[in-house]
Amino acid sequence: MSQLSMRKSEGQIRLVLVEDYKLIRIGLRMVLNGDPEIEVVGEAESGLHGLQLVRDLNPQLVILDLGLPDIDGFELTREIRKINRDIRILVLTSHDTEEEVLQALSAGANAYCLKDIVSDRLIEVVKSVCDGAIWLDPRVASRALQVFSESANKRALYNRMALTDREREVLRLIVEGMSNSQIAKALGISLHTSKAHVCSILQKLSVQDRMQAAVKAVQQSLV
Ligand code: CA
User: Fold this and answer.
1) Which of 2, 127, 157, 158 has CA atoms 20 to 30 A from the CA of 59?
2) Pairwise CA distance, residues 164 & 220, whole Å
3) 173 CA to middle of ligand 1, Å?
4) How many Å lie between the centroid of ligand 1 and the Cα of residue 61?
5) Residue 159 is part of a domain; what is its CATH number?
């Protein structure tokens, strides 16, 4: 047995390609099979065929295109996730908008690569993604992360706005560790009213107790 085939048999990454453009598929197979640790075990030209191969071959990783003739890559990603939560999914596409990146990630993709990626880098990405990493092409990563953080800010703003001024005041006192009666005394309100405010705050923040409310208040800068 040659050195190459010995290495090929142990610890290999079994991979399925889903790409409708034949020339790209052939190129990818040659590049990937050229690495001793990777074996392309199946190729599909459509989403449904790809799904069948995933069922039949149980690969460790799937490389898929977003634009496919039947179901698109987003739907394929969701369907693969239903079959196997552990399988690694690498999107390889020419689509580079942040919407597409976020949609692919929320469908369950672990990596997002653009098609002009150099072959050595693609092999690195395949290996690191199989090792548990996630990977975004640097050209789309910063924009996608910006959209992520903007939506997190919007959520925080929404929570802040959902609380009345009085409730925010009460929340601030909860963060300081005050009890219901201490809050009532500090604000010159009845114990009953103080309890009602705390109740309403817990509900609006969707938390179980005042400790969780305090943590969320600090985490999301609500007070
Ligand atoms: Ca395509």
Assistant:
1) 2
2) 16
3) 57
4) 19
5) 1.10.10.10
